[in-house]
Amino acid sequence: MLLLTNGPVRLLFLAQALYWSCSLIGITLTSIVGVSLAPVPTLATLPLGMLMVGNLLSVHPLAMMMQTRGRRAGLFVGALFGVVGGMLMAFGIYIGSFWLIAIAPVLIGTYQASASYYRYAALEAVTPVQKGRAAALVLGGGILAALVAPEIAVASRDMLPVPFAGAYIALAGLAALGASLMIMLPDGGIPQRVGSSGAMMMNLLRRPVIRGAVAISAAGQGIMVLVMTATPLAMKYCGFGVDVSANVIRWHLIGMFLPAFFAGPMIDRFGPRRIASLGAFVLVISVAFAVSDNSVSAFLISSFLLGIGWNMMLLAGTTMLGEAHDDAERGHAQSVMELGISTTATIGSLASGALIIGVGWAPVNYGVLPVLVVALFLLWRGYVATRSAAQA
User: Fold this and answer.
1) Beta carbons of 86 and 172 less than 8 angstroms apart
2) What residue spans in the chain does CATH classification 1.20.1250.20 cover?
3) Residue 359: partners with Cβ closer than 8 Å, 6 or more residues away
4) SS3 355
């Protein structure tokens, strides 16, 4: 009902679906394009790595832009970067330039960074008792992308004489639709608090609640990216084909977005800390399935649960972040969160291949467990500190 009656939430839900459609097209095809154009095999994954770099470089400037000029301006600019990045990718493929397709994803990374703020925009469009549901519904727009993006990629990859160039034209078109939706968002910035960005962000990180929110969200993101990126490679070493791996990843994506229909109401009812802890428990079960067997069903179930646990931890951390900052600190607080998430995602993406080759599938999954323990410790330590301060 919230999605149907709240205009901004509805727009952000559709924008999320468009962004994830772009993202899934990129995930599906960019490595293939990199392999075909890279001068040496070791550079084949550079375009995806540069996408992460673009994300990291953009999260803070976009947050500051939205702090002063409003959500509409920042999210519109971010989507425009996706349009330009998609067109440059298509042109680079068309002329056979590896270095152009290695640089263009930096711009698409800016689009990715802007899309990470959709759920925060949703929080600002609802009452306090609806925040969990609003963030979950917006994130749930990805379920539409999981259903349609693979078909868009297949239908558009041969649209131009050079294979795959058409798919990135389609990506640019989807980003343009996302930009058009952002123009319709309510506008308005909030005055910034005076002081340097670095000092303000360090001050925010001194607050136990914010440390806990960042820790649980960043842990969920890093674990999800690490294991998701490693899964197709592990399946290849187990003798499974690309089609089988693609089906497993599809179920992982469904797991990522399916909780939109129940995680949000659960956060509003039971509180973000309990749901974050439940998400961490789901990840432990995912690890148990992953190390139990090398069958397709074990990979599929563990990947599906990986997506569900990530969703719960991310949404709970997002909701919890707003408990410990005021409106004037909003941009810096959200920048701290997204920098933490982007950093762990980049580390997970870059490390996954080396870890699978170096230590194997089971140790990678077991390595998830101490990260979860640390994140949960920081999460509940923040709660205890807040209760103690309130009682004092």
Assistant:
1) yes
2) 1-189, 199-392
3) none
4) helix
